[in-house]
Structures are given as structure tokens and as C-alpha cells.
Amino acid sequence: MGWERVRHSEIPKGFLVERARYAQRRIAELVIEEDFVGTHVRRAAGVDVSFRENYAIGVAVVVDRDTFSVIDVSIAKTEVRFPYIPTLLGFRETYPAYKALKGLREEYDVLFVDGNGRLHPYRAGFACQLGLVIDKPTIGVAKSLLIGEIGNWNNDVAPVIYQGETIGVALKTSPRAKPIYVSVGHKISLWKAVQVTRDFTRTGLREPEPLRQAHNYSVKARREIC
DNA sequence: GCGACAG
DNA sequence: ATCTTGTCGC
Fold first, then answer.
1. Which nucleotides of B are covered by protein (CB under 7 A)?
2. Is A172 strand, coil or helix?
């Protein structure tokens, strides 16, 4: 390492990228890739964050697996405190996402996060950061590839390899759509994460329902609350 | 050094 | 992510 150029202008005073990397190395050590989810995953939460002017709107929902219905919604508004910088997404979105999740009244077995988990240059993406804070099984789902190369497809799945290691999976949930990228956030194995993602994705739709719903509510909330 | 780069 | 209307197609 040694060099790191990052958009400097919008970074808050006192924030050192070097310290963020230190935190990420620590996060990477703390993440657990073993399954803490039971065989029956009945409820999943999903979080999404949208922005408007200098505000971030975090939305969390809980979805029932059998009916795909939304049984709880929580919305939180915070001030934006950090710019968007690839590989540092967690420092921008963890706080609003956390606040939204804390507002949920219903329980959930697993959490879906809109962004990568271990599929990150330091193996410490947004989903890992949030997963550790929430301390629940967490799955990262990104809509485009941040790093790595896609290996051989086996039906609808392909490993995402980075530095010789499979740290994510490309998943074609819908035949025509581009794949989504699944990776471990916390307390779950990669393969269980893929299975649960499948279980919560409605046929014909690209994203798992908790994330789709969280995003929908997030778009609505942005114009009603701001 | 160049280019790429989750949301 | 956000700024934005209609429009082509299943």
C-alpha cells in the first residue's frame, strides 16, 4: 500500500482515510462466516438509504418469506456526514441504516444490505460494517461489480474471484436482467447467503424482496419527509 | 502512473 | 445515489 488517492474535497475535517482502512482491517477480522441462521428463515429485514440535499433517509422493512408481505417499516432521517467514495460506502450509509433498523418493532432472522459485504478490497464492505453493529446474520447484495472477476457460470451462479479467492457470487435471479452480487456480511456462510437470497426473491424480479421494498419506501419517503 | 470504482 | 418525460414492450 502506501498510495491512496481519494476525492479529498468533501471529506470531513479530521477524517483520515488511513484510519478508515485500519478500521476496515479490524472489521474484516471480526466478521464471522459461519451460519448463525436457523434452517427456517421466516423473516428477513432489508435496508436502503436514499439522499436529498444534505439529508439521508434510511428505510428498513421486514418481509415474511411465505407471503412476501411487508410486516414492518421504519424510517429514519439523518444529516449526511460523509461523501460517497467507492470502498468507503459504509462510512456514509451505516448510521442512517442503523437508525432505521433500530426503529423496527418486528423481529427478523436475517438482514439484507444494499451493498457488498466481503466482496470488498479489504473484505470489509458496508454489509460487514452494518452486520457487526447489528450483530445479526447479514447478507450483502450489490447491483454492480465493485471488484473481482466472474468465474465460470454454473446455471445461474458464478463465483466472484479476487486475489485468487472466492469472496462473492454473481447470481442471475432473473433471466434477462444483469446479475446481482451476493456476499457475506456477517454470521452467515456464502452459500447459505445465496440460498436465502434465492428464497426471498420473487420469480421474475431481480432483487430480493426486502431490498426491493426498502427501496420503494425509501423513494416515497424522500419526497414526503424532505 | 493510468484507470476502475457498491450507493 | 440524484437530476428527469415519455415511451417501447411483456
1. 1, 4-7
2. coil
